[in-house]
Design brief:
Rossmann fold; five-stranded parallel beta sheet; binds flavin mononucleotide
Length: 191
């Protein structure tokens, strides 16, 4: 079993990466393989709306010029997918939105290839907007026919400077319960 996480922060190894690592701790306890791809420092562009993925149906974005096709392949080979993002102006980062739009169209063009995988969103913020950003991530999972585990709070951690989210005990605890629930669901669904 494998879970792939995408860190949509423009800042590598920051608060969003830290939250992902706490979810991973619980998954690893259950022998679930984990991998994180950080989108920071990547040149990523959004969907060009060419609709060629619907003609080609080859599980790839027609524009094979950045990391997105690698991300799509990683999504397909995994049983669980984590999309994580800091809050930027009350919503998700443009990097994670580009992944959502392009992977989302490719998946729908290829017989909903992500259906029934387990999906979880994670958001960091300094002050406000996390819940709206969290909803944006969940829109992806829900339209892909994916299954979303919950936690004891929405999957949000609070912090501004790199590493500051470690002080948000409730946020960290929320990540651990999310990891436990994700592992439980993966095993129950026999993935
Ligand atoms: C361009 C930009 C916009 C931001 N907008 C918000 C915001 O709307 N609300 C908020 O609470 N924090 C906002 N922040 C703060 C980040 O969400 C916060 O620092 C977060 O912990 C960063 O995560 P990272 O360390 O993984 O990059 C913004 C940061 C940046 C760079």
């Amino acid at each position: 079993m494998k879970v792939i996480a995408f860190n949509g922060s423009a800042r590598k190894d920051g608060n969003t990466a830290l939250l992902i690592s706490h979810v991973f701790e619980e998954l690893q306890k259950e022998n679930i393989h984990t991998e994180m791809i950080q989108l920071a420092e990547q040149k990523i562009h959004g969907c060009r709306a060419c609709y060629k993925c619907f003609n080609l149906k080859n599980k790839k974005c027609f524009f094979d010029d950045d990391i997105i096709n690698t991300c799509i392949a990683k999504m397909e080979e995994s049983d669980g997918i984590i999309l994580a993002s800091p809050t930027y102006f009350g919503d998700i980062s443009s990097e994670i939105k580009a992944l959502i739009d392009r992977a989302g169209f490719v998946a729908r063009a290829n017989n909903n290839m992500l259906a029934r995988k387990i999906g979880a969103g994670i958001i960091t913020m300094r002050r406000a907007g996390a819940l709206h950003a969290f909803d944006s991530l969940n829109h992806f999972f829900l339209i892909q026919s994916m299954i979303i585990p919950g936690s004891v709070y929405w999957n949000i951690g609070i912090g501004r400077e790199k590493g500051e989210v470690a002080k948000d005990q409730e946020g960290i605890n929320t990540m651990h319960i999310l990891g436990e629930n994700m592992a439980w669901l993966l095993k129950k669904t026999g993935k």
